[in-house]
């Protein structure tokens, strides 16, 4: 399953875009051609041997891919722009297989954007959500209180 938050959304859909490689190919066509990797001393653009600090990087968008049957297939694709105008992709696994260097680097990036959301939640649905959350919280507190009450 693919979770999209996309500036590539207009020409991709879950039916058309099922794999990480499909989206990487579309990103390259949109100008995100550099292949970035994270090393202990920063994000590396391999073909130029250029390192970037988290403050020199902007995450324009990102996509999360969840493995349907294998958690090892879980990954995040980041669309990245650098302060000197380069654009490219960074792929990081998440969960048990995440790259500690990449995860820490991304946590330090302060300029992170999500583009269009796949689903907009109406104001009415948002109110229903909060009402349900409040009801569950109250129910949980009552359950705990009843468990502590010896006479109940």
Automatic annotation (TrEMBL):
Residues spanning the membrane: 129-147
Keyword tags: Membrane, Transmembrane, Transmembrane helix
Protein name: Phosphoribosylpyrophosphate synthetase
Naturally occurring in which organism (per UniProt): Niabella yanshanensis
């Amino acid at each position: 399953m693919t979770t999209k938050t996309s500036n590539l959304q207009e020409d991709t859909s879950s039916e058309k875009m099922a794999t990480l490689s499909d989206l990487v190919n579309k990103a390259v066509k949109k100008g995100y051609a550099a292949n970035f990797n994270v090393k202990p001393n920063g994000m590396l653009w391999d073909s130029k041997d250029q390192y970037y600090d988290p403050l020199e990087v902007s995450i324009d968008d990102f996509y999360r891919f969840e493995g349907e049957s294998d958690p090892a297939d879980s990954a995040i694709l980041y669309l990245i722009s650098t302060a000197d105008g380069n654009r490219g992709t960074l792929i990081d696994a998440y969960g048990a297989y995440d790259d500690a260097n990449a995860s820490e680097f991304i946590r330090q990036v302060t300029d992170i954007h999500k583009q269009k959301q796949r689903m907009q939640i109406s104001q009415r649905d948002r109110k229903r959500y909060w009402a349900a959350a409040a009801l569950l919280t109250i129910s949980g507190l009552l359950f705990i209180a009843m468990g502590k009450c010896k006479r109940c």
